[in-house]
Amino acid sequence: MSIANFLVEPELRGMDIESPKRIELHSKILARKKMMLEVFQMFYNICIKLDQQYLNDTPGLRIELGAGVSLFNKYYPDVKITDIKPAEHLDAVIDAQKMDFEDSSIHSFFGLNFFHHLPDPNLFFQELLRVVYPGGGCVLIEPYYGPVASFMYNKLFATEIFDKKEKSWNSVSRGAMIGANQALLYNILIRDRAKFLTLYPDLEILKVMPIPNFMRYLISGGLNFRQLCPNSFAWLVVLAEKILYPLKSIFALHYAVVLRKKCDSN
């Protein structure tokens, strides 16, 4: 048995990742993991802060896509949480590649580890330009592309890859959760930046920011792996993050990106 398989949460071992039961089990795991709850809350706070800082004060809803077990609306009740798969806690079921919204009707979208699951990201960008009000946009949090993240993501997930050399932006998806390339956002916005800006001149890349909660995410095990220390030691993990903060570009496991639809876009 590999180390990754040994560290998998016992409840998840052998489970079909596409099963509706995944949401129920992930919710139970998240409820008992203080450090992971703090990571999620930090993600939500970053999304809102970047929204307020970079996206104009436009009309329209704020919506989380690919929400999974999200608690976003617990901390920010005006945010509508949605996913492509139905679940009782969701506000709506939405396919991010074909959204049932009127043109220029949305202020902003948030996506936490959602983007790399898109089979055809071009469809999402086209929908983003269609439904977002000029000056609005989206905040995406995705697996980082630094040395530590690149090494770890290639080792941990049997159902996903982390390939920064994959030329195609599209994925050969075998389901909503299987076959994704976790390096997809890097490939599009960092590696192929010139191509992206040529294809989407009305989308501005305003911010690319590594997130410094890497120790809590790693030690907590995320939603899929065992936590490596008791919750009572969380303060030590936070202290380690503060010490390593100047090296966040090396150790970060996630990063945030802000895309904005140009104000003069029709």
Helix and strand topology:
Blueprint: H1 3-7, H2 21-32, H3 34-54, E1 61-65, H4 72-75, E2 79-83, E3 92-93, E4 106-112, H5 121-131, E5 132-143, H6 147-156, H7 184-191, H8 193-199, E6 203-211, H9 214-220, H10 234-244, H11 248-251, E7 254-261
Parallel strand pairs: 1-2, 1-4, 2-3, 4-5
Antiparallel strand pairs: 5-7, 6-7
Helix pairs in contact: 3-9, 7-8, 9-10
Overview of the molecule:
This protein has 266 residues and is α/β, with parallel strands linked by helices. It contains 11 helices and 7 strands. It is globular. The relative contact order is 0.17. Helix 3 packs antiparallel against helix 9. It has a 7-stranded mixed sheet, with helices on both faces. The mean pLDDT is 91. The chain has one domain: Rossmann fold, CATH 3.40.50.150.
Look at the structure and give the CATH class: Alpha Beta
CATH architecture classification:
3-Layer(aba) Sandwich
For the secondary structure, the number of strands is: 7
| Gyration radius, rounded | 18 Å
Strand content: 15-25%
Can I get a quick summary?
The chain is α/β, with parallel strands linked by helices. Helix content is 38%, strand content 18%. The chain has helices at 3-7, 21-32, 34-54, 72-75, 121-131, 147-156, 184-191, 193-199, 214-220, 234-244, 248-251; strands spanning 61-65, 79-83, 92-93, 106-112, 132-143, 203-211, 254-261.
How would you describe this structure in keywords?
266 residues, alpha/beta, Rossmann fold, 7-stranded mixed β-sheet, 18% strand, globular
